Amino acid sequence: MNRIFLVLVTLSLASCMTLKSKYFTYYNDSLFEQDRKQGYVDSIVLDKSYSLFVREICRKKPIAGFYTSRNPGYSAAVEKCDCQDPSIGYPKERQEIQYLFVSKERGQVVFITTFPPAILDGKMTYDMPMFDNDSFVNINYFNTFLFGTLKNGVISFSIRDPERVRVDSRDADFRWYIKESVTDGYLEVSKITLVEKKRAKVLLPSDILKPEIRFHKKERYTLGLSNKIEYKIISTHNTVCLNDRKIFLTTSDKNGKGSVENISFRFNKDIDSSRTGSRTIFFSPFRIHAAPVLSGSR
Fold it and tell me: Environment class of residue 7 by beta-carbon count within 10 Å: exposed (0-12), middle (13-18) or buried (19+)?
């Protein structure tokens, strides 16, 4: 249960990452095309029916002292908060960004977390200028993926054992009971229910999760990849954009059946100018903590 909880809540921030992502690998373009033609690649399209809601988790910046003056990354016991909570004030540091793509029309949800921050030029990763542009979703910092369904105000994630990545593997269900404020532009999780081995347990965010689970709606957004986060303005010089808003999933069997081999994204040009055929990246299957329902499984 602790393992599952860490998936849906803020990930541990004990470890630090370098600027270059360690979480994805290049996918040979010709191999990707071969797999797609043979029917091993399915896709989820983040079309116009999907709305993006973003949750930014901050912490109050530690006061400089004996430890913090020597180690800016010292993880003192400080209170975490919603970055957009005006009552928090400054100074504060972004610890994690979470993306929730919701399609009421399709009844589908995609939840994506980011990896732990590092210290860059005296700033935390997510305090760099590019992350002030909250309309840009940077795939370079993606960590884990959860695919779920939405019905009658309840988001359901089927969590599985990471050692078994079958599409139809179900070990536990997390259900988020949501309420949306159209006026204020946010979506809030009011209750979480864990169903494990046919036993249900209600988990209240106010008792367990700090800060509260509130996602803020973004009217427009761009999906792309960049490691030049010192720039706030997005341009072709510092960013590679997606051809379309597609999330590709390669499976071991044809037509969306079998084990998920990887999750991939394809961009409009080579990511690395020194390498030809490097338009595609993939994340390993253990980064998928809740499986999607693919076309071959429907």
Answer: middle
Q: Tens digit of pLDDT per residue, the chain (298 long)?
A: 443 443 344 333 223 333 345 688 888 888 888 988 988 898 999 999 999 999 998 887 766 554 444 455 555 556 777 888 777 776 788 889 999 999 999 999 999 999 988 887 778 889 888 888 888 999 999 999 999 999 999 999 987 654 444 434 456 788 899 988 877 888 999 888 888 766 767 766 655 566 778 999 998 899 999 888 888 888 888 888 887 899 999 887 776 666 778 899 999 888 876 666 678 999 988 898 888 876 654 4
Single-letter code of the amino acid located at 123:
K
Cβ distance 278 to 26 under 8 Å?
Answer: yes
Give the H or E element holding residue 35: helix 29-37
Domain ranges of the chain: 2-297
Closest alpha carbon to 55 in 101, 6, 104? 101
3-state class (DSSP) for residue 168? coil
Measured on CA atoms in the order 280, 247, 100, 205, is the torsion positive or negative?
negative
Q: What is the pTM of this model?
A: 0.82
Degrees (nearest 5) of the Cα angle 35, 102, 286? 45
Cβ pair 280, 35 in contact under 8 A? no
